[in-house]
Amino acid sequence: HDLGKALTPPEKWPSHHGHEKYGEAPAREIGLRLRMPSVYIEAGVTGAAEHMRARAYPEMRPGPKVDMLTRLEAKGLTSRVFRLEAADSAGRHLDNPVLPGEIQRMAKRDLRDILKVRLPQDKKDLGEKSGEALRQLRCEALAALER
Question: d(Cα 81, Cα 72) in Å, to the nearest integer?
Answer without folding.
Answer: 8
